[in-house]
Amino acid sequence: MAYNEVTGGRAPVRMWAAPGEVEPQAMQQLRNVANLPWTHGVAVMPDVHYGKGATVGSVIAMRDAVSPAAVGVDIGCGMTAVKTSLTTGDLPDNLPYLRSRLEQAIPVGFSAHKRPVDPARLHGVAGAGWAGFWKAFENLAPAVRSRRDKAEVQMGTLGGGNHFLELCADDASAVWVVLHSGSRNIGKELAEHHISQARDLPHNQDLPDRDLAVFVSGTPEMAAYRRDLFWAQDYARRNRAVMTALVCDVLRKHFAGVTFHEPISCHHNYVSEETYDGVGLLVTRKGAIRAGAGDLGIIPGSMATGTYIVEGLGNASAFNSASHGAGRRMSRTKAKKTFTVGDLKAQTSGVECRKDAGVLDEIPGAYKDLESVMAAQTDLVRVVARLRQVICVKG
Q: Confidence class of residue 1 from pLDDT cuts 50, 70 and 90?
């Protein structure tokens, strides 16, 4: 699909979505960010929808500036997928039992581990600079220094909302582990601290939206945010790695001889230093993955509509990006008012998962059509594998 360009702002807005199909509030957010003096360009993914601070499904490239609210409160949120040597024929008939074993290994919602997980006992994450990672906690913003104990027991936990852990199968019946999570409470607290700091800075007082307040390069506020931001992104990456290792250990206990491919992992709420048009930029992907040439990524739908493993095509017009999922088509509140538990059971038929009112806001009908989203970005990614859910664990 060729992109649509929205003109009239300081910076170009290139959309892999039809502008007329995007809610007006989201379009106004895109115009607002495009008119900031630091913005070099904006790319809009086909899963775009209104969000807090900035539009979900947007890629914001800035010169010498970054907006902490545009990054969002779940710094480093993203996906990990691992192909296993299992096939669907190896899975037990008693899928609820296997789901319960996964739920025992991975705390969900507000739950945490009773004590910190020891990476030294886990395949794939032992070593990996853990001592230095936790040592760096001492340098984070003073506002979060008292949260280390909580951050340690939340390492290797799923959280709630749209976060999930799944066993999926591809078209050849190979079983995959797929999970979605981020930087948990410590990322949220760091984000909220810096968002508050940015709003009070003099250069942000006349913005059309206070949630677009930025830090600028060469200032102590920017240095402090970058330090905490990149640490939180590392926390999120490690969090997914620990969960993946814990899930793989569950599978090793139940399936003798199972082996695992190299994990595929990608952030979709984060900041990266990249160069476009010969200019060094700070690129914020809020609900978007990096899709540089050869980059492997993960694009999920919802609880029962599948997930795509993709390879980036390196489209510089999109700042080498692609969608992070199907994207919501209605708010959580509206979903709860629109659908019933009966609808949830019908829409998740064939998937072993929760089917109660507590996850009604995550019903597949609350999300955009994944196939349409994929069809709109054939110039951004190519499909490597299509997965369907077998087991889905939600917070």
A: low
Closest CA to 368 of 335, 321, 320: 335
Q: Which two tokens stand for residue 108?
A: 């969900």
The neighbour count for residue 379, using CB atoms within 10 Å, is: 15
- Per-residue model confidence (pLDDT) at position 320: 98
| Order of strands across the sheet that contains 39-49 | 4-6, 13-15, 39-49, 56-62, 279-286, 269-276
Q: Taking residues 226-243, what's their average pLDDT?
A: 98
Q: Which two tokens stand for residue 74?
A: 């779940």
Any bridge partners for residue 272, and if so which?
283
DSSP assignment string, 181-221: E--HHHHHHHHHHHHHHHHTSGGGTT-S-GGG--EETTSHH
DSSP secondary structure of 118-152: -GGGSTTTSSTTHHHHHHGGGGS-GGGGGGHHHHH
The 10s digit of each residue's pLDDT in 3-44 is 999 987 899 999 999 999 999 999 999 999 999 999 999 999
Helix axes 184-199, 220-254, angle to 10 degrees: 160
**Nearest Cα to Cα of residue 102 among 250, 267, 272, 259:** 250
Q: Which residues are catalytic?
A: 324
Token pair of 15 as six digits: 């959309």
Per-residue pLDDT tens over the stretch 129-185? 999 999 999 999 999 999 999 999 999 999 999 999 999 999 999 999 999 999 999
Which DSSP string do the residues of 241-302 spell out, in sequence order? Answer: HHHHHHHHHHHHHHSTT--BPPPEEEESEEEEEEEETTEEEEEEEESEEE--TT-EEEEE--
pTM: 0.96
Identify the residue whose tokens are 């992907």.
285
d(CA 324, CA 297): 9
pLDDT digits (tens, 9 = 90+) for 146-162: 999 999 999 999 999 99
pLDDT at 394: 94
Instruction: Return d(Cα 351, Cα 390) in angstroms, integer.
Output: 5
State both tokens at 345: 């059971």
